[in-house]
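does this look right to u?? zinc ion version
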Amino acid sequence: MQPIPLRTTVIGSYPFPGWLEFASGHLDQFGADDFAELQDDATSIAIHDQIRAGLDVITDGEQSRLDFNLSFYGHIDGLDREPAPPRRFGPPAHDQRGKHTIVGELSAPRGLGVVEEFARLQRLAPAGPVRKASIPGPYTLSGRLLPNSRYPDRWAVAEGLLPLVREEIRRLVEAGCAEITIDEPSMSCYAHKEDTSRMVDLFNRTAEPAWGRSRLSTHLCFGNYKARAVGPRRYAPMFPDFLRFTVDELHLEMASREFAELECIAEIAKSHDVSVGIVDVKSYYIETPQDVAERVRRCLEFAPAERLSFAPDCGLSQTARWAARRKLANMVEGVHLVRKELGLS
Ligand SMILES: [Zn+2]
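got this back:
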């Protein structure tokens, strides 16, 4: 059950300030101390905006995942990290990101960097909100690696990545991380054509080190790179199999889908908490607090307050910061309106 009924939370990422995006193209000009300062400053800003919005749960905004060297693939050995984008021109979308070649055994002897991100968040965040860490699951991570003779298909690549993610989760738990999201949007994007039971098995083996030790959730959206979806936006193909995820909470993208299949949260709430994407990260219509409150009331027709939390549909990294800031503030205000109606404040 939710620690706070109708809790407000986020998916990991937050927009980069303009200067950080600029700096990410000039990282070779920064000294080690300059660079550490830059990461702290960017994270402080993401924390500031989330605290100001009044969220119950915050993240580091993934502000230090600047490029492939600093994101997960930069931490993984056995890769030739020179992805050639298959398409360079035209409208921005997923197919403009190349895939890395596997050239050896997949390993991460120095970890995947999430523990260091969490330590930074611990050091910089004020007391109060819960501090959450996010880590992509092996199935999602496998999508940008090309299979080879040693890892012949996506499942084999995911199996190769599983111990790396699992070990990072174990280290996060050890570091005192009380709340962890395993992001597996590729599972929701491809559930319509892949073996969902196999997905659940892969997920649960990844999550095992956190069972009963940290609050666990997963994020199941339909893709948001450059604010574009990649899967058919339906949850039906995932269930009932995904009810076997060994997590406390499932997060679903609802706002951009005009709350289609909202009734599925009733079934989920029988066994799990459910986090509903209540503001649309792809639209520049800024939901008002009243819009949010109305949506929360609709969710309450299907699931009890103790089971419900609310977040944006996805991470906010693909949304302009001014809009992200307003959406978060209105989301919290709207949820609080309903909390007040129910005498929960
Ligand atoms: Zn997402």
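The mean pLDDT is 96. idk if thats expected tbh
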